[in-house]
Amino acid sequence: MRSCPGSGQEVPCQIQMNIQLYQVDAFTNTAFAGNPAAVCLLPEPADGGWMQQVAAEMNLSETAFLLPQDQGFLLRWFTPAVEVDLCGHATLASAHVLWETGRLPHPAVARFYTRSGPLTAAWEDGFIKLDFPALAWEAAEISPELCAALGVSPRYVGRFGGRYLIEVESEAHVRALKPDFSALRRLPGRGIAVTSRAADPGFDFVSRYFAPWVGVNEDPVTGSAHCCLGPFWGERLGKQKLTACQVSARGGELRVVLEGERVQLGGQAVTVLSGQLHTPPPTHV
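Given the sequence above, the corresponding structure tokens read:
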């Protein structure tokens, strides 16, 4: 027994684990732009339910949890509502934190073990390069109700991994979208990438990504969607190397390189916050 600060009496005190937490803006070189992700560095395995609570508390599109394992790191991603199979910006943020804090020698390759298989991140010319699986798409139908809720008139509709890819006429149409998220949540869905060719000659294509079904109305920059958007536009434009801009309110830029069944996603990152969690995961005896 010992005295807890401020208690005034002898009570058992819970010993806190040293759990570091970082917030990183990914796919940008400027703070308060790109896509913010939380990165939680675990000293030992933690309960998935606790991870989901932490992600809900962070209330960012994704929170990444890292645990050292087999010359690399076990990596899991959670939105405020669910665990997901693949996340680009939180993986980029994770590699950035590992190098910046010295937990991984710079510029050693970061190796991650995930629900989407082994992934790597490497440092190249000032950019973090993610090696991700390419995601195939196929033509699909979309309901009038979903079109109305999104406010789109599609030129093309595809499906990839349970999500929609919708091409519209122009970048102006992409930027002008004001989806009815309440209406979208009442319809079946998981995520929707809306895209067009870029008006700016410095980019090949633009996009926005909506996923109110998993607790993220609009994702500022979506790396995983570019695992499909890259090949989609690479086929249409006849290019293996593309530059992309996700034109959300925060905005973000990506370099996309197509390599057969893999997609290389390049971006930068900025740490904006660091701290320590004071609520450890439950211990199991």
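The chain has two domains: 17-131+269-277, 138-259. Try to locate this feature in the token string yourself.
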